[in-house]
Each structure stands twice: as C-alpha cells, then as structure tokens.
Amino acid sequence: MDRIKIVGGKPLRGSIPISGAKNAALPLLIASLLTEDRLTLKNVPNLADVNLLVRILRNHGVDLAVDGKRPGPATHLGDTIHLTARDIVDTTAPYEMVSRMRASFWVLGPLVARMREARVSLPGGCAIGTRPVDLHLMGLKALGAEIDIDAGYVIARAPKGLHGARIVFPKVSVGATHNVLLAAALAKGETVIENAAREPEIGDVALCLSKMGAKVEGIGTSVLRIQGRDRLEGAVHTVLPDRIETGTFAMAVAATGGDVTLEGARLGDLKTALEILASTGTSIQEAETGVRVYRNGGGIAPVSVETEPFPGFPTDLQAQLMALLTRASGTSVIRETIFENRFMHVQELARLGADIQLHGDTATITGVKTLKGAPVMATDLRASVSLVIAGLAGEGETVINRVYHLDRGFEQLERKLSACGADIERIASG
Ligand SMILES: CC(=O)N[C@H]1[C@@H](OP(=O)(O)OP(=O)(O)OC[C@H]2O[C@@H](n3ccc(=O)[nH]c3=O)[C@H](O)[C@@H]2O)O[C@H](CO)[C@@H](O)[C@@H]1O
Ligand SMILES: C=C(OP(=O)(O)O)C(=O)O
C-alpha cells in the first residue's frame, strides 16, 4: 500500500488549481442513467471514487468515452467524459461495488425511474457514522416506488412508473435529496422537495437536469420544485469547483503560513468556512482567478465551531480545521452535529502531539506550540487530509499509511502541494 511522506515546516507559496467537485461529479455521472442520449461532463476529477462509479455505470450498460490525459499534470482542468446509456442492461448495483462508496447508492432513484425496477446494495462510504438510508427510501416511496429489503439489497419497483409528489424531509440529507431529485426528473408531473439540502453540489445537479429538459425551480433554496419529463435529453455540463478541496488547501496555508491562490475556487460556495478561517487570523481575498489565502506571521487564534448543513460550516472540513487549531494560541471547541463518529483523526493527531479532549459530539482542542512528525494512519477521506495538514505544519517527518482514502477524493494532492514548496512525496508500495 502506498504511503505519503512529509517533512514539515515549509510555508506554502504559489498557486493550486482546484479540481472539479467529487461530490457533484458523482451524482452528475449518475444522471447519465436518465437519458438514452449523450451526457457530456467536463472538469471531472480523476479520483478513485469517480473511477469506481464509472465501473458501476458500465455494469448497468453505460457507454463511456474519456477525452484528455489521465493522469494529467497538476494544472490540467479535469477530464471530459461522454456517457451514453442507450440501453440499461442490468438494473442491479452489486454489493462488491456499492459497499465501497456512498454515492453509488444514488443510482437507485434514476434506475427505478427509467427501468421501473432496481436492485441496489445497501451502501458503504466513509466509516463516520451509521449512515442510514431511510430518507432516500421515504422519498422514493412517495414517488410511487414499492421498496423491499432482501439480503442486503434494496429492491425498488414501480410497474407503472414514478409520479410526482410532495416530500417533506424530516432532516436535511444531501444523498436523499440527490436520489429523489434525480428520480423526480423522470417522474410524471411535479415533485416538491421541502427541507431539501442546499449544498452547491445539489444546485449543480439541478442545473444539469434542467439542461436535460426537467424544469427545476428553487435551486439553492430548501424547496425544490421539479417538473418531471417522460424523456430527458443529452446535455453538456461542467462540474463546479470542489469547495471541500478549496477549504482544505486554505486550511493548509493557514496552518503552514504562506500565500497561495486557489485557482478557479468560488468564494461564495464556502463563505462560512472562510469566515471562520479569517477569524483564526488568516487573510482571504477574492482574486481575479480564484481565491487568495495568506498568513505571513502572526499566530493562529482559537475558534468555536459547529458543523451544519450548507450554508453552515461543512462537516467535510471539520477534521482539517481541527488540524489547524491544534497549534492555535488558546482553546478551541468543535461540535460535530452531522455524523456521530467523525473524530477518527483525533487519535492520529494526538500522535503528532496534539492536545484534544473528546466528550460525545464535542472536541476541545488546546493549542500546542509545535507538532512533531510521526507515523500515522489514514482512516477516512477527510481525516486523512487533516493528517497531511498537521504533517505540513509540524516539525520533522510524518509518514501517512493507507493513503487510498486520500485518493478517493483528492486529485494530485502531492503534486499540487509540492508545486507550492511542500516537502511531500508518495512512497509507492512494493
Ligand atoms: C458523496 C457525498 O456527497 N457525500 C457527502 C454527503 O453524504 P451523505 O449524503 O451520506 O450525507 P447526508 O446529508 O445524507 O447525511 C446527513 C445526516 O443525515 C443522516 N441520514 C441521511 C440519510 C438518511 O436516509 N437518513 C439519515 O438519517 C446521516 O446519518 C447524517 O447524520 O453529505 C455529507 C453531509 O454534508 C457529506 O459529509 C458527504 O461528503
Ligand atoms: C464523507 C465523504 O464521502 P462519502 O459520503 O462518499 O463517504 C466525503 O466526501 O467527505
């Protein structure tokens, strides 16, 4: 298994191109199941999760062509992928594939909408909590699907097709909103989703579905109104920039000091997180080509934060913020309200000398003067990158094991960081 070796203590300077968002690319790729025509997606990041989903879609019968180089240099802007699902040859999404990635479960809605039946394994994904799918099933049932669970598979049937409905989610769920939104685009009549997730990735999918012919109103709000169509058309769509990658590099610059422009980043998609980062003493400016982040001297001020659905502080940046706060001058508090078990990084950060106390959903972080490099283990995607940030800001050598977690969601991480002066390299296994 590959490892990543970091020698810390170097400020980051230069520019980093921000890739297309993993969490938008995945549902956009799935949207290809909704049409017999060609869906062209630009700026698709070259990530393990994307490649796994591509395998799942191929298994359903989606024909796929990729333009551009893979893997490209760190400056490339992502691949263009053409997907055509002329015939769906298999409506089963098998355990071996779906158990490895959360978003693969989102094929359920589109498959039952188009094929009137689907059999999809219960999902996996980062081990950050129990992660039930009751809201997905509630939404699809409201659209007319009959749902059974058998031998670890969800079996959805809608012999007469799906129909529009009013769905009021009792809790905000990104995945359930995606699943129902995708299905509603091929359902008969109007669907209204209330208490929908407002994440920019949902908006990106809604925009693409509008290009494909389904009218979606309320993009960016918690009420989505979708006029379904019997048939959707092909479209060309560019995946929006990854706000979590943006926030991650911003936290890395804050932790090491330096001055980096995050090329292509959109400030508006990350307002809360960047405001919190600014309150730690880091400067953030909208630049012509993206977002500039800099901290030249001065300490890191402590902060108190709760994770929340968008537009609140994202849970996907919680671990990275914690890595930064380990060196704050004072005590910070982070409350994780989205996932009940998203603190796997705490024990690994402690190996580097961090002082973090955990009580239920709350972490209290007392800043230390320095972190010292150590061998650590990546446990999930964002936890892993928090160890990269801590390693870059610490003294000496940090070696991160199990980096396949990082490859799920960060495109060319070492190349992007070393181009800004970081001492970071991948040690290939065997
Ligand atoms: C591929 C992708 O985009 N993953 C993101 C997505 O995950 P995911 O879509 O899994 O996250 P959700 O928004 O659905 O989960 C939010 C909360 O709702 C709960 N819940 C969810 C569904 C359900 O049917 N029942 C239920 O109780 C979950 O356990 C969790 O406590 O949104 C999360 C929250 O922003 C992010 O951390 C993940 O990076
Ligand atoms: C938790 C994440 O991914 P997944 O939902 O696929 O586990 C993530 O992207 O941070």
CATH class of the largest domain: Alpha Beta
DSSP, total strands: 24
Enumerate how many helices there are, as a single number: 14
Total count of domains = 2
> What percent strand?
25-35%
CATH topology of the largest domain: UDP-n-acetylglucosamine1-carboxyvinyl-transferase, Chain
Biggest sheet, open or closed, and with what strands and sense? 4 strands, mixed
Distance between the termini: 8 Å
Function: Cell wall formation. Adds enolpyruvyl to UDP-N-acetylglucosamine.
Keywords: Cell cycle, Cell division, Cell shape, Cell wall biogenesis/degradation, Cytoplasm, Peptidoglycan synthesis, Pyruvate, Transferase
GO molecular function, one term: UDP-N-acetylglucosamine 1-carboxyvinyltransferase activity
Catalytic activity: phosphoenolpyruvate + UDP-N-acetyl-alpha-D-glucosamine = UDP-N-acetyl-3-O-(1-carboxyvinyl)-alpha-D-glucosamine + phosphate
Give a written overview of the molecule.
Phosphoenolpyruvate binds at residues 22-23. Keywords: Cell cycle, Cell division, Cell shape, Cell wall biogenesis/degradation, Cytoplasm, Peptidoglycan synthesis, Pyruvate, Transferase. This protein has two domains: 3-15 and 242-427, Enolpyruvate transferase domain (UDP-n-acetylglucosamine1-carboxyvinyl-transferase, Chain, Alpha-beta prism), CATH 3.65.10; 24-238, UDP-n-acetylglucosamine1-carboxyvinyl-transferase, Chain (Alpha-beta prism), CATH 3.65.10.10. It has 14 helices and 24 strands. The chain has helices at residues 22-30, 48-60, 95-98, 108-115, 134-142, 174-184, 200-211, 243-256, 271-279, 318-325, 344-351, 381-393, 404-409, 413-418, and strands at 3-7, 12-17, 38-44, 63-67, 79-84, 92-93, 117-121, 146-150, 153-157, 166-168, 190-194, 215-217, 223-227, 235-238, 258-263, 283-287, 290-295, 304-306, 331-335, 355-359, 362-366, 375-377, 397-401, 423-427. It has a four-stranded mixed β-sheet. It is elongated, with a radius of gyration of 21 Å. The model is unreliable at 70-77 (pLDDT under 50). Bound molecules: uridine-diphosphate-N-acetylglucosamine and phosphoenolpyruvate. Residues 23, 26, 102-103, 129, 131-136, 171, 173-176, 197, 315-316, 338-339 line the site of uridine-diphosphate-N-acetylglucosamine.
